[in-house]
């Protein structure tokens, strides 16, 4: 995903405009669907906005596209090395995400993220496209999905429908985890039509 050549802002600017136009949406309509102000959307499309995790998730949900469709750079080479220092961090109210890789095979797209939940912080999501999978590497992660809460420790896994409201919380020290999102590619790339 975003590397040294293209910033998250630049990638989001081009990808957001293309996705919006592909769906035949005006800025006003996308604003209504996403709950993001029209002026903010205009700034994001021009590359001058400051995107957050919450913003990107809202746009993913409103456009019914994978998060990587908004943040991904052109297709990677066959041999890919991603250096931590070369990946921009996308921060939210409680989480820092580093997008490591997008893989498409057949009708499935998989996105791989390094996810860090800051100490005594919580990250909420109203939901987004895809299925979400998380494996805790270090720390204790509290995960709430559609009102159901569970505690995960190192090596533990949780998977759920990403469209459900959910949150990640580090009740104590920071939590390191691997986040994997997967989507059916056909559903993620087909235009949304109003009926």
TrEMBL record:
Q: Where is the signal peptide?
A: none
Segments traversing the membrane: none
Is the keyword Nucleotide-binding in the record?
no
Among SUPFAM superfamilies, the record links this protein to:
lambda repressor-like DNA-binding domains (SSF47413), RmlC-like cupins (SSF51182)
Q: Name one GO cellular component term.
A: cytosol
Q: Does the keyword DNA-binding apply?
A: yes
The molecular function terms in GO held by this entry are: DNA binding; DNA-binding transcription factor activity
> What keywords does the record list, in alphabetical order?
DNA-binding
What highest taxon heads this organism's lineage?
Bacteria
User: Ranges for the HTH cro/C1-type domain?
Assistant: 16-70
Family annotation (PANTHER family): HTH-TYPE TRANSCRIPTIONAL REGULATOR, METHYLPHOSPHONATE SYNTHASE
Recorded protein name is XRE family transcriptional regulator
Question: Source species, please?
Answer: Streptomyces cacaoi
């Amino acid at each position: 995903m975003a590397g040294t050549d293209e910033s998250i802002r630049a990638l989001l600017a081009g990808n957001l405009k293309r996705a919006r136009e592909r769906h035949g949406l005006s800025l006003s309509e996308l604003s209504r669907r996403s709950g993001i102000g029209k002026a903010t959307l205009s700034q994001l499309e021009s590359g001058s906005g400051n995107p957050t995790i919450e913003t990107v998730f809202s746009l993913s949900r409103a456009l019914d596209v994978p998060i990587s469709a908004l943040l991904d750079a052109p297709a990677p080479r066959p041999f890919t090395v991603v250096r931590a220092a070369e990946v921009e961090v996308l921060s939210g109210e409680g989480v820092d995400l580093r997008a490591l890789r997008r893989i498409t095979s057949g009708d499935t797209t998989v996105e791989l993220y390094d996810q860090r939940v800051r100490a005594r912080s919580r990250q909420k999501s109203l939901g987004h496209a895809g299925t979400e999978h998380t494996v805790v590497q270090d720390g204790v992660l509290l995960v709430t999905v559609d009102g159901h809460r569970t505690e995960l420790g190192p090596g533990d896994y949780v998977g759920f429908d990403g469209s459900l409201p959910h949150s990640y919380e580090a009740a104590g020290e920071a939590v390191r985890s691997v986040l994997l999102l997967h989507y059916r590619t056909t559903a993620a790339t087909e235009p949304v039509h109003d009926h």
